[in-house]
């Protein structure tokens, strides 16, 4: 049977092990695509269920069908509007009561068949829980498969249950949850009114619509807007029913419905998940760690130490590996050039391949070890559970500067690369907080700027290289703080969204999980080297050779002429010569390109470039140049992602504009100020 | 009745009210925090408050902790 059009959605709370189940089901056969309508990444894979092949879509983690952040909206809309044939809901077996809330809502909605995946059964057992999945399955009327997904236990069984459920092709069974008699009566009465409104009643099953209206859900109430005669009728009926019920139960109906749902789940859990012994939850290890890590006084120092260790690892471990790769590219460049020469290939081809492509792309790939190690360290912090705490530790500080606790993770990721940093803002609930976080994210000095710092600081500040580089990182952070404050008071007035987050227990990160996460993020960098950077170095090489007849990389070439036009702009900053202007110009494609371009323009090998730079720059102009590199215009890829995530050319233009002006002003200030102090 | 932010570690309280729009209330409800639910305060040292809600640890930012109103009557009466 060919069934690849059959779609199974994978839903569940965050931290329920959903991704592990997804990986176990689909193996390596995954791809990342885009969600229709919004260009947000969508992870889907093919799973073989017996001899049927189906598509599995991994939805972002959600707690309920109410959506606040973009991530949640995507998951909710998929379940409500795309209506997959089958939804597999992954549950954390240790916390069934809350984890069952989402599938209970899906049962009330009643548009897809469900299969519940009771995951992490081993952990539940160590906590003294004995779960009767068979009994629970009977009570709910949906199949439940117990699994330990990270050990592969129960996956085969899950596959056969999914296959069986697909083959049934029946509508989902009715939801077993019933409300009190008077509420049920009200639901029935409202359903009758809804059924008379053809357009409204076709949106969703009428029972679901009635419940949502009684809960006072704005999204559904909004559909009953003015100018719709039957809408008015439904609203009138709703108001009468609500008032009647609320005077009966003496508090608001919304809370009553929520309580009933949780009450039902509480009953189920106490029947089918027996606690054999009381697990010492009170002061578990995790809580003891939290007592220290989220401490009012220790929290921030601990955070700073962890960041320091992260950067130390990035440079001290990454450095030697980078040198090794540098050697490989140097060797490659020489030998490929020799090879082309010996095959009587034209000299220009040898130059293009060895100086242009291998030199240019190589000078960028050299930094891959640093970037990978940085992302590895960040993944360890995330996987261990620290990052979620970090949001709380930094919450006060973030608030003080106008950001949100949840801005913290995107900002830290920005040190690796601004692209994953900006993408990580999707978990933020408030759109104002989110755009503000995106706007200042490029000021977090990403690893692409590091090659420029290493080159210039190495050439002109040999004895203080570390301090100089650190000062640039700090400058970025300080500017982000100031600008966040300024932008907040100018464009994003108002209270930030409250910070409420689940704190999963601390755990030892797994090698597999950490490497996978670090690889996914740093792969962007390799992809960039193969595409944008490759194209940029080839372009620079050609522009440095044409028109024919002028000396290579001289001021008479196209690139030289371009630089001559741009150079006066940077004169007040002390580096008003054409090579610097050209390097910055092409640096917009990717900031690493600044190094490669200078290499081409001074026609010299990577290892000798430092010495050449030292002849052309003074320490003061070099510092001004680094400040400019840090701040001016985010790279092309970042601009693209800012546009995608803010969905606004206005904010994208603003991000480009403010950074260009700020970069220029500050580098001029550095140079002129330095001269006044007699440093020039 | 008092705000959650004033609770001490180890205290068991019942949520009475959440001050805020429907969006905030829905968000808390989905995580198991709604009027009538009993929660245990795990950590509260002037920074964020960490609660045990239905066996899960939920962190509440300082600002939000002032908007969740709790009391200690009705504990164990559910």
Features of this protein?
heterodimer; A: 680 residues; Rossmann fold; Helix Hairpins; 3 domains; two-stranded antiparallel ribbon; 10 strands; 8% strand; B: 78 residues; alpha+beta; SH3 type barrels; 6 strands; 17% helix; 38% strand
Could you explain the architecture of this structure?
The complex is a heterodimer of chains A (about 675) and B (about 80). In chain A, strand 3 (about 40-50) and strand 4 form a beta hairpin. The longest helix of chain A is centred in the middle third of the chain and has 44 residues, at about 300-340. In chain A, helix 23 (about 450-460) packs across helix 29, helix 24 packs across helix 30 (about 620-630) and helix 31 (about 635-645) crosses helix 32. Chain A is built from 32 helices and 10 strands. Helices cover about 65% and strands about 10% of the residues of chain A. The radius of gyration of chain B is 11 Å and the shape is globular. Chain B has a 6-stranded antiparallel β-sheet with strand order 1-6-2-3-4-5. Chain B is built from 2 helices and 6 strands, in the order ββαβββαβ. Chain B has a single domain, classed as Ferrous iron transport protein A (FeoA) (SH3 type barrels, Roll). The longest helix of chain B is centred in the middle third of the chain and has 9 residues, at about 20-30. Chains A and B meet through helix 13, helix 14, helix 18, helix 19 and strand 10 of A and helix 1, strand 4, strand 5 and helix 2 of B.
The number of helical segments of chain A is 32
Instruction: Name the beta content range of chain B.
Output: 35-45%
The biggest beta sheet of chain B, please?
6 strands, antiparallel
By DSSP (H or I, 4+ residues per run), the number of helices of chain B equals 2
What's the pLDDT, averaged over the residues of chain B? 87
- What letter string, H or E per element, gives the SSE order of chain B? EEHEEEHE
The amount of helix of chain B comes to: 10-25%
Shape of chain A: elongated
């Amino acid at each position: 049977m060919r069934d690849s059009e059959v779609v199974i959605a994978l839903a569940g709370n965050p931290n329920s092990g959903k991704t592990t189940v997804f990986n176990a089901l689909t193996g390596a056969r995954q791809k990342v695509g885009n969600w229709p309508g919004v260009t947000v990444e969508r992870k889907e894979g093919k799973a073989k269920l017996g001899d049927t092949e189906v598509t599995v879509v991994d939805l972002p983690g959600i707690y309920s069908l109410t959506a606040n952040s973009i991530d949640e909206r995507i998951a909710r809309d998929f379940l409500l509007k795309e209506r997959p044939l089958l939804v597999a809901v992954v549950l954390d077996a240790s916390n069934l009561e809350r984890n069952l809330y989402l599938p209970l809502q899906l049962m009330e909605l009643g548009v897809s068949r469900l299969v519940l995946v009771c995951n992490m059964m081993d952990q539940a057992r160590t906590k003294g829980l004995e779960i009767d999945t068979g009994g629970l399955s009977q009570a709910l009327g949906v199949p439940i498969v117990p699994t330990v997904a990270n050990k592969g236990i129960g996956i085969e069984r899950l596959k056969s249950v999914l296959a069986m459920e697909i083959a049934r092709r029946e509508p989902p069974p009715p939801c077993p949850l019933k409300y009190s008699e008077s509420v049920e009566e009200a639901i029935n009465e409202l359903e009758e009114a809804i059924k008379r409104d053809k357009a409204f009643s076709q949106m969703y099953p009428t029972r679901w619509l009635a419940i949502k209206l009684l809960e006072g859900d704005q999204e559904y109430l909004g559909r009953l807007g003015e100018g719709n005669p039957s809408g008015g009728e439904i609203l009138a009926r709703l108001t009468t029913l609500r008032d009647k019920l609320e005077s009966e139960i003496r508090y608001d109906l919304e809370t009553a419905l929520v309580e009933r749902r949780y009450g039902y789940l509480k009953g189920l859990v106490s029947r089918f998940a027996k606690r054999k012994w009381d697990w010492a939850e009170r002061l578990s290890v995790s809580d003891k760690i939290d007592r220290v890590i989220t401490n009012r006084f220790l929290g921030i120092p601990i955070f700073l130490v962890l960041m320091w260790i992260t950067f130390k690892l990035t440079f001290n471990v990454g450095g030697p590996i980078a040198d090794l790769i540098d050697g490989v590219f140097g060797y490659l460049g020489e030998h490929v050039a020799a090879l082309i020469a010996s095959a009587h290939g034209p000299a220009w081809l040898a130059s293009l391949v060895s100086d242009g492509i291998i030199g240019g792309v190589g000078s960028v790939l050299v930094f891959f070890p640093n970037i990978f190690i940085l992302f590895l360290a960040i993944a360890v912090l995330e996987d261990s559970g620290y990052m979620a705490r970090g949001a709380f530790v930094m919450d006060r500080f973030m608030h003080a500067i106008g950001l949100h606790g949840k801005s913290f993770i995107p900002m830290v990721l920005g040190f690796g690369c601004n692209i994953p940093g900006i993408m990580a803002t999707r978990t933020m609930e408030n759109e104002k907080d989110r755009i503000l976080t995106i706007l200042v994210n490029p000021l977090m000095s990403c690893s692409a700027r590091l090659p420029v710092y290493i080159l210039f600081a190495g050439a002109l500040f040999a004895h203080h290289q570390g301090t100089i580089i650190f000062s640039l990182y700090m400058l970025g952070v300080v500017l982000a703080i100031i600008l966040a404050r300024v932008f907040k008071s100018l464009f994003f007035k108002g209270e930030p969204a409250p910070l409420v987050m689940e704190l999963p227990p601390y755990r030892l990160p797994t090698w597999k999980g950490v490497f996978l996460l670090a690889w996914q993020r740093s792969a962007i960098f390799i992809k960039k080297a193969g595409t944008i950077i490759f194209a940029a170095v080839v372009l620079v090489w050609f522009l440095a050779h044409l028109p024919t007849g002028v000396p290579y990389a001289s001021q008479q070439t196209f690139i030289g002429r371009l630089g001559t036009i741009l150079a006066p702009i940077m004169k007040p900053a002390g580096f008003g010569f054409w090579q610097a202007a050209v390097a910055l110009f092409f640096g917009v494609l990717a900031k690493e390109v600044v190094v490669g371009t200078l290499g081409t323009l001074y026609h010299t090998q990577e290892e000798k470039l430092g010495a050449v730079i030292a002849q052309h720059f003074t320490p003061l102009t070099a510092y001004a140049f680094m400040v400019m590199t840090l701040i001016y215009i985010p790279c092309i890829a970042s601009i693209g992602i800012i546009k995608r995530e803010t969905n606004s050319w206005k904010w994208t233009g603003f991000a480009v504009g403010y950074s260009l002006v700020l970069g220029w002003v500050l580098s001029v200030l550095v140079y002129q100020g330095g001269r006044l102090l007699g440093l020039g | 009745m008092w705000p959650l932010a004033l609770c001490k570690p180890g205290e068991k309280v019942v949520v009475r009210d959440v001050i805020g729009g429907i969006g905030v209330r829905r968000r808390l409800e989905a995580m198991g925090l709604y009027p009538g639910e009993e929660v245990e305060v795990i950590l509260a040292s002037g920074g964020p408050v960490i609660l045990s809600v239905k066996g899960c640890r939920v962190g509440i930012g300082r600002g939000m902790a002032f908007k969740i109103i709790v009391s200690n009557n009705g504990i164990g009466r559910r």
